[in-house]
Design brief:
- The chain has 295 residues and is α/β, with parallel strands linked by helices.
- Helix content is 43%, strand content 11%.
- Helix 1 packs across helix 2, helix 2 packs across helix 9 and helix 5 runs parallel beside helix 6.
- It is globular and about 50 Å long.
- The N and C termini lie far apart (41 Å).
């Protein structure tokens, strides 16, 4: 079921502190403003010619995960990962420069949008093969014996080496937390056209604890905390890709607007003015960063 309320726990947001909620909102705003300016720059042909994979729609997931797991041994993201980098503390100027193909970029200007690499936050860039970060993350967890985040999309989750790696993780009881950012699309092909099974069922069949939910950040944080107590585990988060698979085009509004829903929830909790200030200050900060490169 794809719904803004799928798997919801009533009044879940109220179970978190004010500091948590405002930090969550700040991270979300940083991601959204960065990606909005990146989309504009791409459409104005101010970025190099290689593809750009924008994460608008995913940022609430990454923000929640980064607050639950402020320190991890390794982060292995998919190709759509600007939000992961920002939320886990990557240098935003270095991300900007990476997208501009500059040697001051986080991957020395050689990785581009799909291969965001940052050893400073233990984040290891994607190599371009769909889902390949998952078996690499499992091998990393086998060596490190510490919490490793393995992030995939719903298309990457279908690869045989992904399913095999998950089997290895449960066999060896490795400290891997698998997260699927499930936007229901492989390019433009929906899941129902591609397969007759769900990843959460596949994980459970391997005796991996698994939950399937919508992209409410408080719900993500709640289940991430619980699932991390019994690793390996798997969290499928149904989200909305707001822009094209690659590039900055848009075919219409998302199925639901999580950012708008988050703002309304924050207002209901009495944080409306705080959020207005955060949104304004983060926009000014991101705008300043891009203006440093005349964009």
């Amino acid at each position: 079921m794809r719904s803004a309320q799928f798997g919801m726990i009533p009044e879940i947001a109220k179970k978190f502190s004010k500091d948590f909620n405002l930090s969550l909102f700040q991270k979300i705003c940083l991601c959204r403003r960065f990606e909005t300016i990146t989309a504009k720059a791409y459409n104005e042909k101010k970025l190099p010619g290689y593809p750009v994979y924008l994460s608008l729609g995913n940022e609430a997931i990454s923000a929640a995960l980064s607050l639950v797991f402020p320190k991890v041994a390794g982060i292995f993201p998919q190709h759509r990962c600007h939000d992961v980098y920002i939320c886990f503390g990557g240098d935003i100027r270095a991300l900007r420069d990476e997208l501009l193909g500059l040697p001051t970029g986080c991957a020395k200007g050689m990785g581009g949008s799909a291969s965001i690499h940052c050893p400073e936050i233990n984040m290891y860039g994607h190599d371009g093969h769909v889902g390949s970060q998952v078996p690499i993350s499992v091998g990393y967890a086998l060596r490190k014996k510490q919490l490793t985040l393995s992030i995939m999309g719903d298309a990457g989750a279908e690869e045989g080496y992904v399913l095999g790696a998950m089997g290895e993780a449960i066999t060896k009881k490795l400290p891997v937390f698998f997260i699927c950012y499930d936007n229901n699309l492989s390019l433009l092909t929906e899941i129902d056209t591609r397969r007759s099974w769900l990843m959460v069922d596949e994980a459970k069949a391997k005796s991996i604890p698994a939950i399937d939910i919508t992209n409410n950040p408080w719900l993500v944080a709640h289940h991430a905390k619980e699932l991390s107590k019994n690793l390996p585990s798997f969290l499928n988060v149904r989200t909305c890709r707001e822009l094209w698979h690659a590039g900055a085009g848009c075919d219409g509004p998302p199925e639901w607007d999580r950012f708008d829903l988050i703002k309304k929830e924050m207002e209901n909790m009495g944080f409306g003015k705080d959020c207005e200030a955060i949104e304004r200050s983060t926009s000014e900060f991101i705008d300043m960063i891009w203006k440093e490169r005349d964009i």
